[in-house]
Amino acid sequence: MKNKAIAVLTSGGDAPGMNACIRAVVRTSLKNDVQVLGVRRGYDGLISGSVFEMNFSSVSGIIHRGGTILYTARSPEFKTPEGLKKASAFCKKQRIGGIVVIGGDGTFRGARELGETGIPYVCIPGTIDNDVGYSEYTIGFDTAMNTAIEMIDRIRDTAQSHNRCSIVEVMGRRCGRIALYTGIAVGAVAILIPEVRFNFKKDIVEPIMSRLRYGKQHFIVVVSEGVGNINELAAKIKDEIQIETRTTVLGHVQRGGAPTLRDRVLASEMGCKAAELLCAGEGNCVLAAKHGRVVKIDADKAIGMRKKFKNELYRAALKIR
User: 114-152, pLDDT tens digit by residue?
Assistant: First the structure.
C-alpha cells in the first residue's frame, strides 16, 4: 500500500452506523500511514471525481450521528460500461490501492465489477433490512428496529385511549425482518410480511375477534411495506369487525437517528478490519458477522447469497401473539 491511498464510500440506502464505520476506516488507515480519500455520493463520486482527503478532524464527532457524512446515491451511470471505465480510470489516476464500500448487496455487485478492473475492495454490510445472506447481522438493523419499537409504543398509547386498531407499516419491500422482529417486540396481534402469504380471515380477523371476546379493545397490526396497501387493509378490518382502524407509515424515520451501541461497535470493528486488510494488501472480500466475530469471506461466494427466512421465529410469533 506504499504511496497509495484507500478510498471509502457509502452507497444505496443509508443506515445508522455508517458514520462510525467511516470513522474507523479513516483512523485505522491513518495510523498505518496510509492516505484516505472520502468519496461523495457513492459510485457517482468516482465517476465525477468528487473526492477529498480525510484526516482525524474529518471524522471527529461523527460516531453518534445517523446518516452518512459522505452522502449516498444509486448510480445508473456506474452500471454502464462507460461509467465503470470512468470510475476505474479515476481510481488509478488517484493511485487508489483499495476501496472500502459500505452498503447492501447491490453496492457489493458494483464493487466486484470495479475489482475486475484491478481495484481491490472490501465490502461492509450496512443496511437496515439485514437481508444479506452471508452475514448474521448488518449495520443499522438494531437501530431501525428500536426506532420502530419506540414509534409503535407511542401509537399504542393513543390506540388504547380510543379503542382502535392501528396498522403500522415498517420498511422492508422484499424482506420482512423489521416487521417480524418489531411485531414480536410490541406484541402485535398480526404481523404481515412478504415471505408469508396471509389469509385475511385467519391471520387478522380471527385473532382480533378472539381478543375482543375476553375484553381487549385495542390492537396493533405490523405490516412490512412489501405486503400491500394498508389503507385498503384498514377499510376491510373496519367493515368486517366494526372497529375504528387507523394507519401509520413509519417510512424513512427508521433510517435516521443516533445508532445504538450494537451498531456503533460492529461498525467500528468492521471498519477497522476493512482498513487493516487493504493496508496489508488483501482485498476482494466482504466482511460478515458470524458467531460474535467479524470474518472475511470471498466476494464471489458471498455476493448474491440469500438469507434464509426464520420460519421458527415466525411460528413463535403466531403462538405468542
Answer: 999 999 999 999 999 999 999 999 999 999 999 999 999
pTM: 0.95
Write the CA distances from 236 to 166, 232, 266, integer angstroms. 13, 6, 43
Per annotation, catalytic residue among 14, 44, 129, 263:
129
Q: How far apart are CA 275 and CA 110, in angstroms?
A: 19
Q: If you ran DSSP here, which 8-state letter would residue 152 be given?
A: H
Domains and CATH numbers, the chain: 5-140+259-302 (3.40.50.450), 142-255 (3.40.50.460)
Digit-coded pLDDT (tens) for 232-273: 999 999 999 999 999 999 999 999 999 999 999 999 999 999
**Secondary structure (3-state) at 213:** helix
Q: Which residue has 458494483 as its cell numbers?
A: 110
* Nearest one of 139, 8, 122 to 71, comparing CA atoms: 8
Are 49 and 81 in contact, with CB atoms under 8 Å apart?
A: no
Residue 129 annotated among the catalytic residues of the structure: yes
